[in-house]
Amino acid sequence: MYLLIYIGIFLLTFITMEGLTWLTHKYIMHGLLWYLHEDHHQPQPGFFEKNDAFFLIFAIPDICCLLFSTLYHVYWLMAIGFGVMAYGLAYFLVHDVIIHQRFKWFSHSQNRYVRAIRWAHKMHHKHLNKEDGESFGMLYVHKKYRLKVARDNQIRKAQKI
Prior knowledge:
Elements: H1 2-32, H2 34-41, H3 53-71, H4 75-99, H5 112-125, H6 143-160
Helix pairs in contact: 1-2, 1-4, 3-4, 5-6
C-alpha cells in the first residue's frame, strides 16, 4: 500500500515540475536571473553557458531533499526527491540532447512530439531578450505547435503524391 502512495507522490511531483519549470523559466530566468539565462538566448563561443548554473541551483535542493529523506527515513520526501530528479533527467534529455543537441547522442528525429517540442523551443528562442517570450515549458507542447507539425506532415504527404 505504501509503495503505491510513494509511486503516486513520485508521479505527481514529476507532473507538477512542468508547471514549476514554466513559472521559473518565465518569471525567474526571464526576470530576476536573466543575467544567467541571457547567454542561452544570445550564444557565446564555448561549450558551457552561464545558464548552466541553473543545473546547480535546481540540483542542490533536490540533493539535500534526498539526503535528508535517506538519513531520517522520510520516504514521502524521498519520492518527491526522485520525482524532481526524474524530471531533471527528462529536462536534460529533451532540452540539451534533443532540442539543442549539445550532445550528439541521437540523430534528428521525425517523431511528431520531438518535432513539435523543437518547434516550440525555436519559437521561444526567436526572442533574444527577456521580454515578449513564449513557450516557457519543456515537456508539454502547446496545441498550436502540435497543430503546426501536423499541418507540415500533411503538406509533406501531399507533396509526395
